[in-house]
Amino acid sequence: MIIPVILAGGSGTRLWPLSRDQYPKQLLPLSGQRTMLQDTFLRISASPEIAPPIVITSEKYRFLVAEQFRQMQITPSAIILEPEGKNTAPAVAVGAIRALALEDDPLLLVLPSDHHLEEGPELGRALAAGAAAAGKGYIICFGIPPAAPETGYGYLKKGEAIAGMPEGVFTLSRFVEKPDARTAEEFLSSGEYFWNSGMFLFPARNVLEEIKKNAPGIVEACSEAVARGREDLDFFRLDPDAFARCPSISIDYAVMEKTRAGAMVAADLSWSDLGSWEALWKIGEKDERGNVTSGDVYLHDVESSFVRAESRLVAAVGISGHVVVETADAVLISPRERVQDVRHIVSELKKKGREEAKTHRKVYRPWGSYESLVSDGRFQVKRLTVNPGCRLSLQKHYHRAEHWIVVRGTGLITREKETITIREDESAYIPLGYMHRLENPGSIPLVLIEVQTGSYLGEDDIIRVEDDYGR
Fold first, then answer.
1. Is the peptide bond before 17 cis (omega within 30 degrees of 0)?
2. Helix %, strand %, coil % of the chain (to 5)
3. What's the whole-number average pLDDT of the chain?
4. Beta 235-237 vs 230-232: how paired, if at all?
């Protein structure tokens, strides 16, 4: 049995303004209709040997992750919440400990959730070859033949072909972190080096032994964090105090650079870690002038550019080699070769406490979502969408009153001691300080327009008395 361990806790900002701290790239549909997290599991799920995954993520993404698996009608073996990011070695250790509680000695397939990877027979061949070698105790990494002298990727140097193993399985001669440009050129021309895909396959017991041998503090802290952890709805919460004592280190440094059991499977796949808008331009379907577009986009005399519209018409004239990305509250414009510098913009936005660095206007909640439409001093207008069968917490506000107008569906409102049903074109008023709750008893999404008025309209003015989601 192969148990995928999907790493879904990152909060990368190199794809800002689409990817943000509260809604990172792995939860977005960047290269198709499905999100990157969904693609990560679905591309390998056809094999009968693949078990439901263990997903390692952050507290702030827990409901988004759960909802994306619910949409696929897949129940993960576990969704494990890290109290804080500790890099990939602790995540792998936690995944291995949890997997061993499910199976006697499973193979773990560690997968980043934010990479683009070509589906097809070659992927199946590479996984089968890796499973055969991992079954013999090897610690497997997957190498991608380099298409260019990239300095943003780690590299693997293949050794000798391993006798008795399927074609394409080699000893791991050398594990190299991101090289400079000259070294990357040498790696490319040698034909001996491969990009490190970040995917690994190994027996759960073996990798724990390797981590214990090379970084013993990780296994000790993670074992305690699991033992003292607790179930919470659909999630498993690691004990924060125990996990805080865990060293922060990647599986590359903790194991792969030191192990004598390392092996590499050469996988001739189209692969990218999608670390920038330039990377998305490279993998995107291009028009006759080399442009990649998404959304409501009109171009005139434009070439070799990436233009993405999320919420409105975007028109471009006479540009070449540029990236233009529009969202409801921010627009990025950059030459393609400078898109990595978006990190400086994000850094400045964070310093100034700007919401655009953290979240979008549309904010997802376990019950649905809300979107800010107008905000002006003492009033604010939002659109709320409540999923069928879901309800908000029983709550009150000290600084604002609310007026709800239903535009689609049926809402059931608790207001102090009374219960009210409101339908399309009907409304309800929630005075300041009143205990209240909104739920959707119907079979279609409930959509309301919410008008807030008061002296303070921040999201922290919520006093929850009862909550289905344990917030």
1. yes
2. 25, 35, 40
3. 93
4. antiparallel
Closest CA to 277 of 332, 350, 203: 332
Whether 140 contacts 171, CB under 8 Å: no
β-strands 379-386, 368-376 pairing: antiparallel
Q: Who has greater pLDDT, 470 or 409?
A: 409
> For residues 113, 116, 120 and 126, what is the CA-based torsion angle, rounded to 10 degrees?
-70
Confidence of residue 414 (pLDDT cuts 50, 70, 90): very high
List beta partners, residue 127.
none
Give pLDDT tens digits for 129-159.
999 999 999 999 999 999 889 888 899 999 9
For residue 299, CA distances in Å to 289, 319, 339 come to: 11, 9, 20
Strands 169-176 and 155-161: antiparallel
Q: Looking up tokens 């028009």, which residue turns up?
A: 287
What is the signed CA dihedral for 259, 260, 261, 264, rounded to 10 degrees?
80
Q: Which pair of structure tokens corresponds to residue 103?
A: 């199976």
User: CA 419, CA 468: separation in Å to the nearest integer?
Assistant: 18
| 3-class DSSP state of 101 | helix
Dihedral angle computed from the Cα positions of residues 376, 379, 382 and 384, in that order, rounded to the nearest 10 degrees: 160
Q: DSSP letter at 50?
A: B
Q: Phi then psi for 344, rounded to 5 degrees? A: -70, -40
pTM for this prediction: 0.88
Interatomic CA distance for residues 470 and 232, integer angstroms: 8
Q: Six-digit token pair at 409? A: 């569906």
Residue 211 amino acid letter: I
- Looking at residue 126, its amino acid is A
Cβ-contact 365, 60 below 8 angstroms? no
User: What pLDDT score does 118 carry?
Assistant: 82
The span from the CA of 169 to the CA of 275, in Å, is 28
pLDDT tens, position by position, 268-286: 999 988 889 999 999 999 9
Query: What does each C-alpha distance from 52 to 49, 78, 112, 392 come to in angstroms?
Result: 10, 8, 16, 30
Q: Which residue from 411, 403, 359, 360 is spatially nearest to 385, judged by alpha carbons? A: 411
Q: How far apart are CA 281 and CA 299, in angstroms?
A: 16
- Which residue do the tokens 């049995």 mark? 1
Sheet holding 331-335, edge to edge: 292-294, 306-309, 322-326, 331-335
Nearest to 5 by CA among 92, 87, 73: 92
